[in-house]
């Protein structure tokens, strides 16, 4: 009989139970079972759309309306989605373990909606807008906007407060994410292809500072061979294996 997944789950349970400082690094895969599309899967956004036309500062400068139409479509889609058992599992860790922080590449806001309070959003948040003149950021859940592109009260165009290709990540958030992985004893990586830098390098910084790394992903990634334990399952299957159920 084949027992390996069970052995791995037992090991993972122990690693989590004994962790004094856990960092959870998440990507699009944790929200996939909530209905949010991933980027690089078979139905991924980057299979259907060209990032250089929709997710770069040049694209926004050239054609802000097209970029905003795409973001408005995504906002509408995400507005219908709810946190799943994996988001809830992360919340339960924050409640039950000594120190837990979340570093996410997701812009959907589902970790906070689930109840996580220490969330570092490396790529921004789709529910925030930024004034292209003043740089001010505010939460704006309007959906749909009455006209596109939406304007700031100063009259300048607003843009989504997300990180586009070719842009830098928010430096304070990134700095803290590196500090967290370098001082953690456990890094749990859920639902990321581990292809996009600098987020993809975080677990390796954890490993070289002595942290154990657990990966949860139904597919093999560049991190799989380096992780202390790699669980080939979906985020919700993982949550259920650890006793958190939907609903
Ligand atoms: P990707 O779309 O690159 O990868 C999603 C990962 O989730 C893949 O490795 C899948 O195998 C895995 N996956 C799919 N369904 C899953 C499930 N139900 N449970 C667990 N894992 C599952 O998404 P990210 O790694 O988040 O950046 O992509 C990183 C960045 O690339 C994004 O933040 C975005 C994108 O370009 C920006 O927009 C700046």
Characterization of the model:
- This protein is of the alpha/beta class and 247 residues long.
- It has two domains: 141 residues, TPP-binding domain (Rossmann fold), CATH 3.40.50.1220; 74 residues, SIR2/SIRT2 'Small Domain' (2-Layer Sandwich).
- Helix content is 37%, strand content 17%.
- Strand 4 and strand 5 form a beta hairpin.
- Helix 7 packs across helix 11.
- The mean pLDDT is 95.
- The site of 2'-O-acetyl adenosine-5-diphosphoribose has 26 residues, from helix 2.
Main beta-sheet annotation: 6 strands, parallel
Which secondary-structure class do the elements indicate?
A: alpha/beta
| Backbone CA Rg | 18 Å
Q: What order do the strands of the largest sheet run in, or round the barrel if closed?
A: 3-2-1-7-8-9
Mean pLDDT: 95
CATH topology of the largest domain, anyone?
A: Rossmann fold
**CATH level 1 class label of the largest domain:** Alpha Beta
Indicate the proportion of strand residues: 15-25%
Alpha-carbon distance between the termini? 33 Å
The number of E-state strands comes to: 9
Q: Give the ordered list of helices and strands.
A: HEHHHHHHEHEEEEHEHEEH
CATH architecture of the largest domain: 3-Layer(aba) Sandwich
CATH superfamily of the largest domain: TPP-binding domain
Low-confidence stretches: none
Please give the count of helices: 11
What shape does the CA trace take? elongated
Into how many domains do the coordinates divide?
Answer: 2
Share of helix, binned: 25-40%
* Bound ligands, each once: 2'-O-acetyl adenosine-5-diphosphoribose
